[in-house]
Amino acid sequence: MPKYRVTQSAVTQLLEDVRRESIAIPELQRPFVWDTIKVRDLMDSLYHGYPVGYLITWQSVGAHLKGGQVAAHQQILIDGQQRITALRAAVAGLEVINKRYQKKRIKIAFNPLTEEFATLTPVIRKNPEWIHDISELFNAPSTFGFVRGYLESNPDIDHAKAETTIGNLEAIKNAQIGIIALDDELDVETVSEIFIRINSKGVPLSSADFAMSKIATYGDRGRNIRKLIDYFCHLAVAPHAYSDIHDNDDEFAASPYLSSISWLKDDSEDLYDPAYSDVIRVAGLVGFSRGKASSIVSELSGRDPETRKVDEARIPVAYDKLEDALLQIVKKYNFENFIMTIKSAGFITAGMIGSKNALNFAYALYLRLRTDGSLSEGERKRIVRRWFVMSMLTGRHSGSFESNWEQDIRRIAQQGAANYLKQVEDSELTDGFWEVALPNALETTSTASPFFQTFLASQVASLARGFLSKSITVAAMHQQSGDIHHIVPKDYLQKNGYPDRGDYNQVANFALTETPINIAISNRPPSAYMASVNEQIASGQLTLGEITDVDDLRRNLEENALPASLGLVSAASYPQFLTERRSLMAAAIRRYYEGL
What is the rounded CA–CA span in Å between residue 94 and residue 106? Predict the structure, then answer.
């Protein structure tokens, strides 16, 4: 059976349907992200009769619209907001919200002689041959009067041609735009799947986009909840935007939500800057124990997960749950304490964390455990730290992670977080993992590898020093400057039988090192530069780093998971060195994990 129907609507009828909210656009107060060139190109395409893509709508039970109405018979636009906003700006002459949340006019000019569209500029404004703002034609009381005024300003032009092209311009009002109306009887999951598969100019739409559209349909409250998510994510990256939001979005500023995120205006932390899709996922786990964004849409639509029927009485309850979860997520105390928990595990920079989903689940777990009165604060943080690192090492939150999330959350609720974590550890982090799988996983050239980054985190957590450093720690170099150094130098290996990048750039051949030490080592093999270190210890005269004690050198090698026999490593023994180093790195990670 068809899951949609395709109709055509004239531009003016479409804009009238939007004005009357027969087609409800939940996101009109969001910043308009198209530049004026795209608006110009849209008008040019309509003028020449080119296709401009389809709008996609769906009727959603219980959607609240501005003014308090409920969208019982209204179609909600779920794809095409930017095109509708562009038409409202260029044709209807309405203001748009810019990136600073200010209301601005976009004026598109048209030259009837050249049939050219352009963004209005001061030069064009001085030229009478241009219609400076095409919305003036579309909204003129009399087309005849508008044309007469134009011709009087341009007495020497070809009047017949001008009248024809202005008529063609006016015909844009009747240009047809396709609308794909999804079947009203489709369930939320099917609509979500269709939504995800649709491409808008080559950009795949996500289930989080769908969820954000759905959230915004619940009247003023829904729009402001939607903005709470948007603004939280925006301010986490750009704290300076707070004044723009405060000064220009009166509706949101008057809501109780702005104060809950105002702390971000002074925030400079960038370890975890969640996107709206991340916030949606965390909120789903915290508020509904659901991993899929489409499940949140289902909840907000009043669908009972047991009977699979819509019960409108469930809708306000679902929005209450969502709001409560979001206020927990954006709360300064919660967010900052979670960040400190992750940093206490040694992950101190965003570059060390390749899996945003690992962070998302860990934050959801942290928030849920805060309501578990049987756990102390220290125990909660221990569980979150271990879960996060375990997920980094096992890739638990990759692939079809959403189903795994729901299973994990359900079992944590049933068995208790500590018990279930122990069960996962016994299953995943066996002796075979630590002694075989992890060393094998460290056979990689990727410094972004979660296994290598976890090794670096173990060094940060243990206050390890950089390779051959006396006092400069790995943590300090992460936060300031330090080199990823080839322990057996690249140039030496290339000249001695290892020309391939995959040979010399193994992470087992890397250590974080101070730049002066790296420079001093140059391309010398370990036998040469370690001999210099030993001479330095004997003489006390500094030539490579600052270590002058043999026991301190031994400790430094241990801190960097390097064999005591490093000074004997040559090109011939390089493969054996890599194997031994991987085992030492894996053992260091195991000690670190068990000590979390």
Answer: 8
The sign of the CA dihedral 15, 16, 20, 24 is: negative
Give the 3-state secondary structure of residue 8. Answer: strand
Pairwise CA distance, residues 382 & 377, whole Å? 9
CA–CA gap between residue 550 and residue 463 (Å, rounded): 20
Helix segments in 462-514, DSSP class H: 474-479, 490-494, 501-504
| Contact between residue 208 and residue 280 where contact means Cβ atoms under 8 Å apart | yes
Instruction: Render pLDDT for 181-238 as a digit per residue (tens, 0 to 9).
Output: 887 777 666 776 676 666 554 455 577 877 887 888 788 898 899 999 999 999 999 9
Contact between 134 and 90 under an 8 Å Cβ cutoff? The reply is yes
**What ranges in 395-449 are assigned the alpha helix state H?**
401-415, 417-428, 431-432, 438-441
* Ramachandran bin of 224, using left for φ above 0, alpha for ψ from -120 to 50, beta for the remaining angles: alpha
In this predicted structure, the answer to whether residue 103 has a pLDDT above a threshold of 90 is no
Residues 6+ apart with CB under 8 A from 177: 8, 9, 10, 11, 14, 52, 54, 55, 83
List the helix and strand counts (H, then E) for the chain: 31, 13
Residue 504 is predicted with a pLDDT of 95
d(CA 255, CA 132): 39
In the prediction, which pLDDT does 66 show?
A: 46
pTM for this predicted structure: 0.83
Q: Are strands 75-79 and 483-486 parallel, antiparallel or unpaired?
A: unpaired
Q: Where are the domains of the chain?
A: 4-182, 207-437, 441-594
Dig out the tokens for 579 from the structure.
């194997």
Q: Answer yes or no: are the C-beta atoms of 460 and 474 closer than 8 Å.
A: yes
From start to end of 136-248, where are the E strands?
176-182, 199-200, 203-204
Which of 570, 579, 578 is closest to 495 using CA atoms?
Answer: 570
Residue 65 confidence (pLDDT) above 50: no
Confidence of residue 163 (pLDDT cuts 50, 70, 90): very high
Mean pLDDT, residues 465-471 taken together: 95
Beta-bridge partner residues of 97? 103
String of DSSP letters for 476-488: HHHHS--EEEESS
Contact status, residue 498 vs residue 574, Cβ threshold 8 Å: yes
Instruction: Pick the closest to residue 233 from 223, 241, 222, 243 (CA basis).
Output: 241
Token code pair at residue 304 = 């009972």
Find the length of the chain.
596
For the segment 541-563, the average pLDDT, to the nearest whole number, is 96
- Strands 116-119 and 55-59 come out as unpaired
Name the residue with tokens 């939607």: 226
Is residue 547 within 8 Å of 496, Cβ to Cβ? no
Q: To the nearest 10°, the Cα dihedral for 66, 67, 69, 71?
A: -20
Find the DSSP H helices in 522-573.
526-539, 550-559
Confidence bin at 306 (pLDDT 50/70/90) = confident
